[in-house]
Amino acid sequence: MSAPAIDTAAQPILSARGLVKSFGGFKAVDGVDLDVAPGSIHALIGPNGAGKSTLFGLLTRFHTLSAGKITLDGHDISHTKPAEVVRLGMVRSFQISAIFPHLTALENVRVALQRRHGFDRQFWKPVASLRALDAEAMSLLEAVGLQDLRDHVAVNLSYGRKRALEIATTLALDPKVMLLDEPMAGMAAADVAVVAELILKVRKGRTVLMVEHNLGVVEDLCDRVTVLARGRVLAEGGFDEVRADPVVKEAYIGASDDD
Ligand SMILES: Nc1ncnc2c1ncn2[C@@H]1O[C@H](COP(=O)(O)OP(=O)(O)OP(=O)(O)O)[C@@H](O)[C@H]1O
Ligand SMILES: [Mg+2]
Fold it and tell me: For residue 54, how far is its CA from the centre of ligand 1 (angstroms)?
């Protein structure tokens, strides 16, 4: 599949400068710069403990910054509250949009939609709004291929379908930027292919930043790759460029020796 041309010279939709996160004396993120081009699928890769999830936590303001600056779509969000970051259009999947196991697929998406309407403060006509919400929820279920399972309780869905439902609940918040932390983790190959297709489908009009250990997925989906190791950016570029980088190879081999 051919990736669409991404204008990396365009103003980044998400930009980080000099990000640091210290836990006690230990710097889990140690001076990271990152520019994510609008409309791109950008991968964040690196060995275990490199600081990828901590960096996501900084970007979504789940963690406070020890130093640095984050800009989202022109807004300085370095000290913004997490809920405000969501309102500004950046949502981390599998965090805010956790699934309620004993609600149906449709109910889960409806709850997420109500949350968004709550942010907008427009959700004041419950009865009239409910039908509209159901229609919107159904179209989101269709977008992720779960329309026939609308009345199934989430806990009974297969692993891949739970992930699809999580993506639907994230889409319900209508994010400009979606952060996906290991969307394929623990998945069988068949499910990986389904979720990869899904990410390609939902990227339209959005930007995706994803942590992913499956390098085949990164190669297929991502326009740009940033490699982290020991809290620092080791390399950045297209997949082939990064894969050929001896420093990157060394970091991966070095890390597996440590394990
Ligand atoms: N709350 C915390 N307190 C102390 N140390 C932490 C905390 N969170 C993360 N760390 C440490 O920071 C480093 C980076 O962790 P992080 O989870 O960001 O790595 P990662 O790149 O996401 O790894 P993985 O690929 O295993 O998910 C690790 O050494 C981890 O032990
Ligand atoms: Mg992690």
Answer: 6
